[in-house]
Predict the structure.
Amino acid sequence: MSPAAAGRVAGKVGRLLASAGGAVTVQFVTAGGSLLVQALAARTLGASGYGAYALFFAVLVMITSVQTSWVGDTLTVYDRFEPRIRGALLLSVAGTVVAGAAVGAVVAVVMGLAGPAGIALFALLVALWLLNETGRRIFTARMEFWRLTANDACYLLTTLATLGAALGLGADASVELLLAAMCVGCLSSIALARLRLPAAEYARAPLRGTAFREIAGFAWWRSIQAGIRPSALLVARIMIAGFASTAALAGVEAARLLLAPALTFVNGAGWFLLGDFAKAERAGTPMRARQAVRACGLMAGIALVMSLAGILLVDWLGPLVTGGSFEVDRTALAGWGVYAVCFACTLPLASLATARKRSRTVFTIRGVESVTGLLVLTALLISDPAHAAYAPYCLGGGGLVSAALLWRMLRKGDPPREASSTAVSSEGHLVG
């Protein structure tokens, strides 16, 4: 290889690694902000109050995962500037924001988590959160992860500043106060995204004759597939609160917070992989299943090391999270480590399948995995509510089976092997 060619390859690798680093960094900023807010909730609201907040947040995550997979993954996989696609996306954003706010309000009422003010604030938060998430996914589609990091930092700082100001002025710590502060943070992040993204990203498009049916065939299965994991977590939390108590849920949730860095890393890497896999598909240089498997191995190894660190530091980190008001569940703590590793083994393969527009198959595999895990958890809770700590084992263990099934499916759809193997393709994707 000539020096010039080697320089071009090195430059592409450097840009790729920088982008991947940004994808992981933005997830750490996002999860770090969530961790700080949730830790503040745990320290000020007590076990029962924090358990209620955890249920609110679980509903928000579930709704967001469905909306962002419908809108955000379509932004990434399809050409969002093509008028028919763009019109369908505009309709999708409007519809999902309204529907998401309504669903959030209904779920909050059914679960009896708050009074009228809290329910109204939660509905507003869902709408603002989804609008903010749409802007976040535009940054993702543009592979501008470092710019997205600044936007997420804006949300975090504004939320914490609002909380600090309110508490400093004598306001009582409550779930409603946390929801209101998060609304203010979302507004600031939405405004910043509007200022920093190019005008073309906000261009209008005809709302008649759109490709809504075309993208719905992809987005429907993708959104319900992406909603499986947070929905399963929400159902598990509701079951724990119902069979045991919100105090028991708080111990399990505090354990999850301690291992948030491992889960955050996996999510961040998954964001980057989906974008890179989709880019390779559009460029006509599709990735092979073995490359996704290599990503699984690397991500699982890192997730294992990060999980072990959290487990070993529980005596020091636990009181920082809970404020000493309740204990971190040690059994659940190890379980979340298992969950993180199994998640890492599945996500790259699911991302490659999504880039190949095989969302329906991924949904089937992941759906069976989650339903099975919830059935096992139900049996355990019925036999003894103290088994709540086994929830992450039930929800995560099946990921290894799902990974094997996805790998088998992806191998059958692999592109033909090229005559020669290179370190980096002409489009700048890592290949092996």
